[in-house]
Amino acid sequence: MGTRERKQREVQAREELFLSTARRLIREEGLLTLQMARLARACDYATGTLYQHFASKEDLLVALATQRMREHAEQFCRAASWQAGTRDRMFALSVVDHAFNRQHPGFARLLQYVFTEVVWESASPDRRQALQVELEAPAAAVTGIVSQAIADGELVSGRLTPQELMLGPWGLSAGIQSMQQTRGMLAGLGIEDPTRLLHHHVQAVLNGLGWQPLFDLDDGTALDGLVARIEREVIHAES
Amino acid sequence: MGTRERKQREVQAREELFLSTARRLIREEGLLTLQMARLARACDYATGTLYQHFASKEDLLVALATQRMREHAEQFCRAASWQAGTRDRMFALSVVDHAFNRQHPGFARLLQYVFTEVVWESASPDRRQALQVELEAPAAAVTGIVSQAIADGELVSGRLTPQELMLGPWGLSAGIQSMQQTRGMLAGLGIEDPTRLLHHHVQAVLNGLGWQPLFDLDDGTALDGLVARIEREVIHAES
DNA sequence: GCACTTTTTTGAACCAGATTCAATATCCGA
DNA sequence: TCGGATATTGAATCTGGTTCAAAAAAGTGC
User: Fold this and answer.
1) Contact B171 A176 (CB under 8 A)
2) Which of strand D's nucleotides are less than 7 A from any protein C-beta?
3) Domains along the sequence of chain B with CATH
4) Interchain CB distance below 8 Å, B182 and A120
């Protein structure tokens, strides 16, 4: 009679409520001050009910990260299937990634925290696994672009596999963005516009890997134009 | 009468004891399980005494990171003044950085944790400042190499300042190394030898930035040879 | 060496906040 | 409607960081 299913849906909805409320609390008062009892109360449930969904606070955080990661993966895959050359698509991934992080300011911070030994190791294996699963689609998307570039002769793989090749642009994006997190670090070095710089350097690695057609790094206008086009065609595209 | 100074030295020594014991405890039982009371007891002092040195647990962690960072900065500066061309010296920084992290396996993890909003914001301003100070020397070293490369005509700065240029290689190193931290992440992608890959990609960015003389990325032997030479002449050099 | 003040050390008490679990309420099939 | 299964509750428990009044040690003037 479907009463089981309804129950399922209710539980699902409640989990959603917990997650979105947690997100709001974090936005309003910071990751630092999130408290399980307060979260439960804010949702009009008892503490114990919250623990029926999440085995621990760390679990909740991983779940939060997983949820956002899913959205992120969607955007990412959209960028990967953009109608453009492999090189531009690869670059688009970095732009989309960065735009996503700007749109969800807490996400990068949360992810940084979640991947910390202290949090990661105290989350339940299931939740960890779920987050890792969300990483697969984006990874496959990137690898696909690299493979196609090799097949099309726009990129020479040398001794490296596609996975290994993608580590360059990916690592660079991740590295610069994580520096952007640490309050005051880049400003302290006199760096003004990290976003533009990130794009510049990603183009530099792609050039360095010999990914055709090479990009003229001195042409600031072309870079801005390309970024604008990606934002228009990929990020703000209807879907 | 110098009794004040002696006292100073004793306090200094005790702080050193706390730090090195903390390091041992973390090594033996993990960051996760470090407890202030246990640490104090392990040093034969009362909890309160420990708090005379460190305002909080977070403070202690930042102090720990700062101490190691100082050693790291030394190695780093040594590499920066290596007798070699600017390009090789820049590359050497990345090699030294990575070697240091391999030699002190917990350091990267600790740093990752410390730079987390949750920890960073609950450490005292003094301790934060102290860690930031330790970043200045390395930053100056890198910037110096970049500036010299520009002066020598081995690198064309375009529209970027030396600080901005160095963000490329630096961000890449940081990004790949932090991925290496997250247990199983790289292995899950089928990546075997992240160290070699890191070196490869750093050379790729340097090539991409047009840093002369360009490095032949297909020549694996040359890469290994250069790394070996750096390890010999910079890392294991007497000082 | 002694009486007194100041500084340092101590560790048990305190407190915050995550987690548990016995009691209670709700649901569901018969 | 009844009886057992399941879900919810929130006060009690537990862990571990932090504090602070008391005790000890060090310093000072005589």
Assistant:
1) yes
2) 7-12, 16-21, 26-27
3) 1-53 (1.10.10), 57-235 (1.10.357.10)
4) yes
Residue A1 pLDDT greater than 50, yes or no: no
- How far is Cα A140 from Cα A77, in angstroms, rounded to an integer? 9
Tell me: pLDDT of A237 over 70.
yes
**C-alpha–C-alpha distance, residues A172 and A207, integer Å:** 14
The CA distance from A131 to A135, in Å, is 7
Assign 3-state DSSP to chain B and report helix, strand, coil percentages, each to 5.
75, 0, 25
CB atoms within 10 A of CB A43: 17
pLDDT at B1: 42
Residue in A116, A185, A197 closest to B112 by CB: A116
**CA A199 to chain centroid:** 16
- Please report the beta strands in B99-177, taking only residues with DSSP state E, as ranges in sequence order: none
Which residue from B181, B183, B23 is spatially nearest to B102, judged by alpha carbons? B181
Which residue blocks in chain A are alpha helix, DSSP H? 3-29, 36-42, 47-53, 57-80, 86-103, 105-114, 117-120, 125-151, 162-181, 185-188, 194-208, 220-230
Residue A89 backbone class (left: φ over 0; alpha: ψ -120 to 50; beta: rest): alpha
Q: Amino acid identity of B196?
A: R
Best CA proximity match to B81, nearest among B92, B72, B68: B92
Q: How confident is the model at residue B8, as a pLDDT?
A: 82
